[in-house]
Amino acid sequence: xxxxxxxxxxxxxxxxxxxxxxxxxxxxxLLTVEGLTRHFxxxxxxxxxxxxxxxxxxxxxxxxxxxxxxxxxxxCGKTTTGRMIVRxxxxxxxxxxxxxxxxxxxxxxxxxxxxxxxxIIFQDPYSSLNPRHTIGKIVGIPLQVNGVRxxxxxxxxxxxxLEVVGLNPEHYNRYxxxxxGGQRQRVGIARxxxxxxxxxxxxxxxxxxxxxxxxxxxxxxxxLQRELGLAFLFIAHDLAVVRHFSHRVAVxxxxxxxxxxxxxxxxxxxxxxxxxxxLSAVPDVDRPGGAxxxxxxxGDPASPxxxxxxxxxxxxxxxxxxxxxxxxxxxxxxxxxxxxxxxHFPETEPPQ
Amino acid sequence: xSLSPSDDIxxxxxxxxxxxxxAVGRELVGRxxxxxxxxxxxxxxxxxxxxTVLAVLxxxxxxxxxxxxxxxxxxQQQFQDALDSYGMPLGYSGGITGAHWFGLEPGLGxxxxxxxxxxxxxxxxxAVVAAVxxxxxxxxxxxxxxxxxxxxxxxxxxxxxxxxxxxxxxVALAFVPTVxxxxxxxxxxxxxxxxxxVIIVVFAxxxxxxxxxxxxxxxxxxxxxxxxxxxxxxxxxxxxxxxxQLLPNIWAPILVSFSLAVPSYVTNEAVLSFLGVGVVDxxxxxxxxxxxxxxxLQTDPAYVFFPGVTIFVLVLAFNLxxxxxxxxxxxxxxx
Lengths: 352, 335
What we know:
The complex is a heterodimer.
Chain A: E1 31-42, E2 50-62, E3 67-71, H1 78-85, E4 93-98, E5 101-102, H2 111-117, E6 118-121, H3 135-145, H4 153-164, H5 181-193, E7 199-203, H6 211-228, E8 231-236, H7 239-245, E9 248-253, E10 256-262, H8 263-268, H9 273-280, H10 322-326, E11 332-333, E12 340-341
Parallel strand pairs in A: 3-8, 3-9, 6-7, 7-8
Antiparallel strand pairs in A: 1-2, 1-4, 4-5, 9-10, 10-12, 11-12
Helix pairs in contact in A: 3-4, 3-5, 4-5, 5-6
Chain B: H1 5-11, H2 33-43, H3 45-62, H4 64-71, H5 112-148, H6 150-165, H7 168-184, H8 192-223, H9 226-233, H10 238-274, H11 286-294, H12 302-329
Helix pairs in contact in B: 2-12, 3-5, 3-12, 4-5, 5-6, 5-8, 5-10, 5-12, 6-8, 7-8, 8-10, 10-11, 10-12, 11-12
């Protein structure tokens, strides 16, 4: 594995998506998620026990070296899904298969080898680093506790990692409070890379960062993906960032995936009304001001403790009919599109 | 503006590894949060003064036998010839002379200064050991309850409530003499150390609850931080999680609660001795001295003065130092 820095590509920053080497479509999925579900019991002091269906039957897969973007508004279950995949949360139902093995309920010692291959990058660089540890220690702990003895010692390996993520390896002995948000996030990335994982769940890795720093961190992730062949599950609510980084995109609403497909299909020809509404909310520099065809959704998302019958989006959907309340649409290919869409009345025209 | 990370590195303060000369490497050394707190503490005048007072008192307590040798008078020595026929010390203000710096006890004629030196030793020993024991128990209980949660948390919470509901003084009044009687009977003389141990046990039974609650609260709030999940995702074990990840983040409040617990044990120990269930007479002790001096308040007011002032200074210095320590460790907390 090469870890030395290579000259970085000067891709156009920000909005314009850049064509990346597409992973072969025949590749076996690295991660397969089937019917993944997580319910949280909520106990009120006096009221009856209710169940919050944070994630309610989610299916997708991630191929080696691929990025799957997972988007949706706050509270739709993106983060819970990511936490379940890296086994920080126990799924209520469903199956997670990693590299052919069922890891849904792996526990304790058996989880150790898995930890090496599955890592996570966190959202908030201010709370994801232990303030009492030097960054050298933070990056080195995964190596230490997993008994990895790299050539030349842990310290050298940690310094290599710091260099890979664009930090000065001499800052090994510094504390997190001496770094900026972007630099801290690089430390978090170095920690995730330490065990040389094959899949990284990136849980909104840039949403806490300044916009200019976001582009740097996303470019770093892309560079690492190219050099190390990493697969990413990239959780975000910023559609522009997801478009920049992902090969495929899944859109979540209220614990379900409503649309999943290749990035360009989702962004250019969204079929699900919710996807369309989300995309219409992305500010466009070419058309400043109003008249952008923005779809305003009425109301708030329904409560995940009491989701609507049938299609979950029907309470806010302008196309909802009777069938939407009675029959839940399946996530399947709809005519005129290659992506999978869970809607009875998918959009056919590309957005203006 | 380029958005590629390599440019940023070259330009920003985190210069590349190579060309930076090693000579300036010294100022690059990172300061740990502990070092920063120490710097702040050094700048705090109250902390320095109260810390000096405490250091002097501790040295006096530890070096008591040495002081006895230099002073030339023992704590049990009686100077009946310096008392008048009523048992009151001769001379002014309780018999202060060059040989007896703080005067003599009425009645027995023991030297007050050397008894206070040894009393300080008893007092600080009981208080520090009790504070260490209660802090250890409290931290262990609080960490387990806070991190593991569930039924362990419920059980520890219940025991804490139980210990808090017990009236301390009443239980101590009943417990100490009963235990002493159980082990040594009516006529046997019990060794001084046994009494001290019983008092520490009484403090330990009651004192750990506040530390446990404090630590539990801190751990519960830390548990939600992402670095805990990051450590879990790296596959660390329970011991690593508790001792390497969580505890280093809460040693500041633990240290503050420890430094504020010591003076409260000093006063509590004095209270127990005053009430007659603490350290018993030939062992020198502040509480017992103040109790004896109450009888002579009118005839020999100097007797109550020195032990009273010393215990006041000791507790005040501890409290001021504890407050300064809190300010230094957590500068965001308001005064």
